[in-house]
Specification:
By secondary structure, this protein is mainly alpha-helical. It has helices at residues 3-23, 27-49, 51-66, 69-101, 109-118, 120-131, 136-141, 148-153, 157-173, 176-201, 204-218, 221-226, 228-253, 258-265, 267-275, 278-293, 297-310, 313-329, 336-352, 359-370, 377-385, 388-413; strands spanning 419-421, 427-429. The protein is 80% helix and 1% strand. A two-stranded antiparallel ribbon has the order 1-2. α2 crosses α16 and α3 packs antiparallel against α10 (176-201). The structure holds aspartic acid. Aspartic acid binds next to α20 and α22.
């Protein structure tokens, strides 16, 4: 059985067993599933362990062997442009579905206050984290690392990407003999990292079972009922973004068959769904782009780590729906001007959000403040916190699919011949 089928099976089994334990209120089964969670955590740690060696090695090879910095600049410009545009489209879709469905209009005040009351303390924690968020200037400056080793140690990808590009560019201009030695070394590091990913991925189906089983077993089903319309609005928006925005980009810009594309890349969004982290999924995303789509290293090594850090369409879309939901529930009118503010701030907030679980709900506070919902921030966050874990899983899958879409689009725009690998790992022509 293909690995991706096994992961899917793990996910479905985890969800089913978790749901049985939860809905039938079988205490021992719930405890058993929660006790299995460390298997999932071990997987997340093991796969995150390989992020730094893989990103550094692959970006180093990518830039050092390019030998042409203008090409890198061009790829960079296109990548950031594509990311900003798709994120703004995602927010717009989020606003559209919320305006049509009005998820916050069906909840009465008593339910609202009870829901918010239950999670007020947790929401206060998120607000403290948001207060510590740096300003725009500080964020821009922090892209230049004072110490690249520290950036690596803290899994701070943006400064590390910056340093590695500068270093790789420098390597590309040194004496060929030494340059080749450096490139060969990092090629070895890259290959070994890929081997480790293959090993760790063998654990994926069991880890996914453990992660999903524990989430579903723990989940409050009453909560889901009250927040069902809100959750479905987010999911509908995400689906529309996936099918329309990515569907069109893959078909017309990357010139690939969208269904084939989804099938080929599915492993990465599945891991994203189970881990709720774009960063943890990054090694799988990079392996998938290179091995399943045939994206070249200079493109994948740049587009994907950058995407895991700054491109979060799913998060931005979710933030748009959350803002509208909270406004509707408190009876506050969000007009067209405020909605434009949402497009701007949610796009920026999703760039600022780290690729880790629950990052989106923290940067949501920035968007809520920007549209004048400051007074309701804590209660608003408390209101939606209960379903955030589940929505985080779904939006993270979309974030990662967006990164993969970008890698295919940018590769094609650079004249690369993309191809799907056949089952026996032979390359076959890319069908449109
Ligand atoms: N968990 C998301 C990610 O890693 C970020 C978020 O929306 O919370 O992509």
């Amino acid at each position: 059985m293909q690995l991706y089928n096994k992961i899917l099976l793990g996910l479905i089994l985890g969800a089913v067993v978790g749901a049985v334990a939860n809905f039938l209120d079988i205490g021992w089964l719930q405890s058993f599933l929660i006790a299995l969670e460390p298997i999932g955590t071990a997987f997340i740690r093991a796969i995150t362990m390989i992020v730094i060696p893989l990103v550094v090695a692959s970006l180093m090879i990518g830039t050092a062997s390019l030998g042409d910095l203008t090409k890198l600049g061009r790829i960079g410009g296109k990548t950031v442009g594509f990311y900003l545009c798709t994120t703004a489209v995602a927010v717009t879709i989020g606003l559209l579905v919320s305006n049509v469905i009005k998820p916050g209009s069906g909840i009465d005040e008593a339910t609202r206050d009870q829901l918010a009351g239950d999670a007020m303390d947790e929401a206060a924690g998120a607000m403290t984290l948001a207060e510590e968020a740096p300003t725009v200037i500080e964020t821009l400056l922090s892209v230049i690392p004072r110490n690249p080793v520290q950036a690596a140690a803290e899994l701070d990808l943006l400064p590390l990407i910056f340093f590695t590009i500068i270093f790789g560019a420098a390597v590309s201009v040194i004496a060929p003999k030494r340059r080749d030695a450096v490139i060969t070394f990092f090629e070895g590091v890259n290959d070994a990292s890929m081997v480790i990913i293959d090993w760790v991925m063998k654990l994926a189906p069991y880890a996914v079972f453990a992660l999903i089983g524990a989430v579903v077993a723990r989940f409050g089903t009453d909560l889901l009922q009250s927040l069902l319309v809100y959750s479905l609005t987010v999911v509908l928006g995400l689906l529309l973004h996936l099918m329309i925005t990515y569907g069109l980009a893959v078909r017309f810009l990357a010139k690939l068959n969208f269904w084939q594309f989804l099938k080929r890349v599915a492993k990465a969004p599945l891991v994203a769904f189970s881990t709720s982290s774009s960063n943890a999924t990054l090694p799988v995303t990079m392996e998938t782009a290179e091995e399943e789509l045939g994206v070249s290293k200079p493109v994948s090594s740049f587009v994907l780590p950058l995407g895991a850090t700054i491109n979060m369409d799913g998060t931005a879309l979710y933030q748009a729906v959350a803002v509208m939901f909270i406004a509707q529930i408190y009876g506050i009118d969000i007009g067209i001007t405020e909605q434009l503010v949402v497009v701007l701030t949610a796009t920026l907030a999703s760039i600022g959000a780290a690729g880790v679980p629950s990052a989106g709900i923290i940067t949501l506070i920035i968007v809520l403040n920007a549209v004048g919902l400051g007074q309701h921030v804590q209660a608003g966050i408390a209101l939606i916190l209960g379903v955030d874990r589940i929505l985080d899983m779904i939006r993270t899958s979309v974030n990662v699919t967006g990164d993969l879409t970008a890698s295919a689009v940018i590769a094609r725009s650079e004249g690369e011949e993309l191809s799907f690998r056949s089952r026996d790992e032979e390359r076959v022509a890319a069908p449109v």
